[in-house]
Give the backbone structure.
Amino acid sequence: MAGAGLLVFVILQWRRISLTYRIFAIIAPTLATSLWLAGMIDGSTVAKGLDRAAFFAFFLTSLAVLRESAKSSALVRRCGKVLVNQPPGRRYLLLAFGSHLFSVMLNIGALNVLGTMIRRAIRPSSDPEAQRIATIRSRRMLTATLRGFCGVPLWAPTSVTMLLVLSGIPELSWEQYAPLGLCWTLLFVLWGAILDRFAYPSPKTHQVSGGDLSQLLPLAALVALVPGLAYGLARMSGLPLFSALLMCAPIIGLVWIWVQYRGLKTRVKGGLFLRRLRRSFPETFTNQRNEVVLFTSSGFIGVILVPLVDPQAASALLIQANISNATLMVGLSLTMLACAFIGINAILTVTLMLGVLQQVPDLGVSPLIQASVIAITWAVFAGASPFTASLRFISNFSGVTPLRFGVEWNGWFSASVLAIMYITLYVVL
């Protein structure tokens, strides 16, 4: 049923789906049919792929309710203004953390909100020195925003990354991984702040604070509420965490919209609420048509290709290669990076890799390390590869190409994070 519903959605939205994503929508069923007719996969594999695709679709549309509610939130606007108007000495760190909080709720929409505010905050000038300072300020603020966004795959249950990783490593739960993921997130953001401080020393001129930082607390509480409520529901009902999240996210989003009309009479509030649902939500869901096609197709293809890998052959190849576990993990990371830089969707890459790893007996690498390597690598290439939506989106506010932004503006940070991770792997493993 879910697969049929997804098919109907794609057919109805076909004309409005971009050409690139149409190709994915054609390749997925064509490949499945070819492999099935050739006897290389069976019906159960196809059904499993359809289940994965449908779950991705429901996951995206469920979280879209949160994004829709955040679009009109005065809280989001206030927090954005506070972050953008901070003095240079602490602006990077606060903007990176703030962008991270925004992104947990808004996903890529956070880049639009903060990018727009950053562009408005930087006023053009004919003075060469003022123009130079404005360029540096824009670069620092946009880089902080991007890195905060890229930290979301490291832990957030609202990210496709976590859904994919934990689906591919069944013995690892989100509550087991989350403390470590939050640690990676903290180090990720702090390392960026350290590099920023060395590159741009704090000016000696005194500047007034851009606002009360306590205004960020309600947003932080709201971000914590989403996984917290989902976790509580999962524990009480026995549902998987991500299934519970699918139920909680729309409820939180709808309540958030209702609260935005506080102060009005109940009848007026109800009328505005229903009108919002009728006018905005159909467009909110259909506007995700490209993302739905990309994620569902990639997830489906990844699932149906996994059975084609011979686990015995893979295991024998690893034994013959005689490589250490650290080298194996570094190789996995580099493969992900290479695929990201040639435009291969990470969902497909990670699904295949995890599928292979789970079939290799006596791997000797803990699930926590596997998840960490994939999540950190994903966070890095999200801010480095010109093919990622995040980098293409943020570069629109920078005046430079995605390639220049990822390599010149963010390249040293990305390379240093990878180097630290690789060194740590060789020390630990």
